[in-house]
Amino acid sequence: MAGTSTKGIWKVITASSMGTLIEWYDFYIFGSLAVVISTKFFPSDNPTAAFLSTLATFAAGFVVRPFGALFFGRLGDIIGRKYTFMVTLLLMGGATFLIGCVPSYESIGFFAPLLVLILRLLQGLALGGEYGGAATYVAEHSPKGQRGYWTSWIQTTATFGLFISLMVILVTRELLSSGEFDEWGWRVPFWISILMVIVSYIIRKKMHESPEFAKAKAEGKTSTNPLKESFGNKYNLKFVLLALFGAAMGQGVVWYTGQFYAMNFLKTVMFVESSQVDGLLGIALLFGTPFFVFFGWLSDKVGRKPIMMIGMLMAILLYRPIYKEMYRTTDLSLKTEIRPEQYYHAPDELPSPDIKIYTDGTKLDIIRNINKATGKEEVKNNITVNSADKWYLIFLVFIQVLFVTMVYGPIAAFLVEMFPVRIRYSSMSLPYHVGNGIFGGLLPAIATYLVSNAKQNGDPEFYLEGLWYPIIIGGICFVIGMVYLKSKNNTEHD
């Protein structure tokens, strides 16, 4: 077990966190630019199908994460934590950089989505090995009784990675014209990641192996076949399944609903202007991120289960009211349009008929484009919300981020404590990445499909249909967790 000293632990956390932050940044760049990417790498004759295809490609990276967890988890339990997640960093960074180099669909046809899919799969494999290594590494340096607090710093990196990706995209959009960003500027965030990876590699190279693993290795107590011990042993497999269905599955859908689905919902269902969405989401994430550490610390005092279960239950009960309020802020049928003559004095000042302004300050730009493939005109609403509604939306997203911090802040310590050192990397990585990769990663695509289907069927509350997926998955996880998880912090089984 870890001792009581915290000497050098900030160095460990900084080295682990920076690499993990960059890997999450790499992963999120794709999701954050999904709307743009759908027009570059997929046929343009059906925008909805192109966007769904992009989300499916994004989800593919999540689906292979469990395979990355198995492959790199085995390496981590055999050769060590440090070298394994150094490899994952380089693999992730290289794949991300290359996505930014892939020619468009117009240039190379179906090879474009094929290459992007292959690179997304490599990203997913790398991320599958990254988190378990970083969380295990920090936990094995943490003093006994403080694992929740110290590992929660790793938990902040995922949200910071998303935050930084949003800010990089926002700055790139500001520095370039809309035409330049659409033509080549969207590639810049992918290219920038390679510089960040180089810095992180240099930092990680100076790290030492975790003391618990080094001790186990010196005593000859490491596993020669960690996958067999982890999943072939019925006793250990029970803990793996409990970790998945009683915690990680629900945590995964809450995480992706509160951040990724909120972003997609604002952009593609509410039609809020893209830069404004990135800005308000960034503010909500900035306010919410400290709560990862708070709930990690609190879990050392009151246990992991109560915090995770309360967060999950609140999300299940409040998602529909929250998203109903979000949608209402840009529901133009509830707003009153100002007639042009009321705010323009001269005929030559009259705005384009494709620009509408409402009494509460909301602005609608109707963007018309000719689809090159079909020759038909496409019409898209682009809404800029007023200042009051902007801060209200920030508040509503912040509440969702709070749910995320409750379920995600304590989970690294929770998973680490379920498994012994010799098979910890393998055992904890799989349920985490199945929960997040499969159940969480599929959420944007499934939820978007449910919304599109309900809209076609004329459901007046079509925009809420996508929430049934996280509500049902989270509900099942909540019941299993309440019944089978221990009330106090887990202790390792032998």
Automatic annotation (TrEMBL):
Domain of life per record: Bacteria
Tagged with keyword Zinc: no
Membrane topology: Multi-pass membrane protein
Compartments, record wording: Cell membrane
Ranges for domain Major facilitator superfamily (MFS) profile: 12-492
SUPFAM superfamilies for this protein: MFS general substrate transporter
Keyword annotations of the record: Cell membrane, Membrane, Transmembrane, Transmembrane helix, Transport
Any Pfam family matching the protein: Sugar_tr
Signal peptide segment: none
Listed transmembrane segments: 21-42, 48-71, 83-105, 111-129, 150-172, 184-203, 239-259, 279-299, 306-323, 391-416, 428-447, 467-485
Main location: membrane
PANTHER family membership: MAJOR FACILITATOR SUPERFAMILY TRANSPORTER (PTHR43045:SF7), SHIKIMATE TRANSPORTER (PTHR43045)
Protein name as catalogued: MFS transporter
Organism: Flavobacterium arundinis
